[in-house]
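Example 3.2
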Amino acid sequence: MSLGARISEKRKEKGLSQEALGTFTGVSAAFISQIEKAKRNPSYGLLQKISNELDVSLEYLVSGDMQANEDPNTKMITSISRYLDRNQKKQLIDYIHFLTGTKRYFDLPFFDTSIEYAHYLLRHYRIEEPPIEPFQLAAQMGVEIVQSHNELDYEGVLHKGGEKPVIILSQGYKPRQKFTVAMMLGHLCIPWHVKSTFYREKNKRSLDEEDIFAIEAREFAGELLVPTGLLKQEFKSIGPGIDGFEWLAEKRFGSSMEVIGQKYQQSHNKTTAFLTSKGINVNKKYEAGFPSPLVDQLQKGSLAFELTNNPPSSKQIKKGFVPTNAWVKNPSKPLNIYEESLFDPAFGFIVTFLQLK
């Protein structure tokens, strides 16, 4: 059973509608629906609120561990924590570090979310312009980075039990390495990440991630590398689309285009979707809020299908209006969909941006 399915099950047991749970936790019913359908992952802060409203432990929602849900000590800690102020929560975290023997390298202020820790680092190190360089930031923080010459089973590993924290990186695409370093810095800075070793798994989509620490580290990394405030400033002069996303990724933020497209979709979720596909299979979809569910395999009529069916020998972008059924599952009404799809033989997959015009 997935995270979303467990939330749905416990919500129904409590007799709450999606609208009621959304009202109690400060989000829309549509957002709750997207979480339950595994179309979107909740933040750590929202998960805390949901677990409190459903009277279940955070551990149960994330892992499905029923024992954690039934353990009276876990229930007591979960219930008490919501009444602690920030200073008391910090004292509790410090004591947990003592109990677990986990080394803590930085005495950072206590915040409620991973995003706030990313903002704190940007302020503390006075980073006000892109690109944000996580390798340089790690060096300033006293973190050693080791490039492995052997193939690893993971994108990267963080060890934080020695005199200084060490990040071991697998060989690979530079933007992925930068994101991995940023994730590891998140594990290092967020004080309740009290394990001595953290991994970033290979080829795991963020929507498939159910480990709460990994979800938070991804949120941290995304905001550290592409701060929402800086990106919004850039979009004032650059229109949305594949060309703009590619330029921002390569020339301004030094990140992957996926991070740029995902962040834009999050802020324009009722009219846009961002996808990647390999072969005919759509392997990543950022469609939360889009008015209709999108297909899982490329369909005739889409520009992405044309690029897959007849792949060019060099990078190519196709743009234009496409039929509704080229992208929408079982459409009930026609939509005015404008598609932009990019294929680059160097990467071997297609990036697609959809807009409702």
